[in-house]
Amino acid sequence: MAVIQIKRRTSAGTGPIVGTAGTIKAGEPLIDLNGTNLYISKADKTGSSANPLTTNDYIEFASKANAEATMDSKITALGLGTASKKNTGTTNGTVPLIGADGKLPTSIIPAVSPVTSVNSKTGAVVITLAELGGVAASTYNAHESSNLHLTDDQRTKIANVKNVALMQGVGAKFDTTKVSFDASVLDNGLVLHSIQDTNYNPVKTFYYIGIDKTKVLTPTSVIDGGTY
User: CB–CB of 204/197 below 8 Å?
Assistant: First the structure.
């Protein structure tokens, strides 16, 4: 069998023939026995100091090993993980897989059990509230009026709230306006004092109310310089 040889690189280094020496022909193949890639010349050219041969003068075809190495490098550079596996799993940064049951792992989405209501009756039927999984109004109202859903702190605050009111009667009346009120009362007739007791939650305020003794007659009142 005849042996046909093509240009081949046998010297040190890798790649096609480059530099100021050498001649190539358009479509001429060159095999790099070191780098294991194949190169095809693009056009006729003779290397010179003014116009040397470069890798741009060739079309490069990578060998199987070099092509796979290049693809692996791209996969790593793009952070794609292991090709065809894509970092599957159920931990942080991985992609979960659908199982044989057609569901995601329960560690991702816990198993749920839907509640269904099946009507076994025929014809015109009346479905009861219980059959629909409902709750009677009386049951709901009993729970609604309960304080079981409140915390201890919330219950304490509500228990300390007092509902008080001042009522109009024989001994007291309500003025309809602030102006009327100011005209009807003694100036500074009452003395007030308040204490904040933090032992209560919420804080309880105690008010002390008294009548200014200089505004009323007493057994020792002084009027126009005389004591009565």
Answer: yes
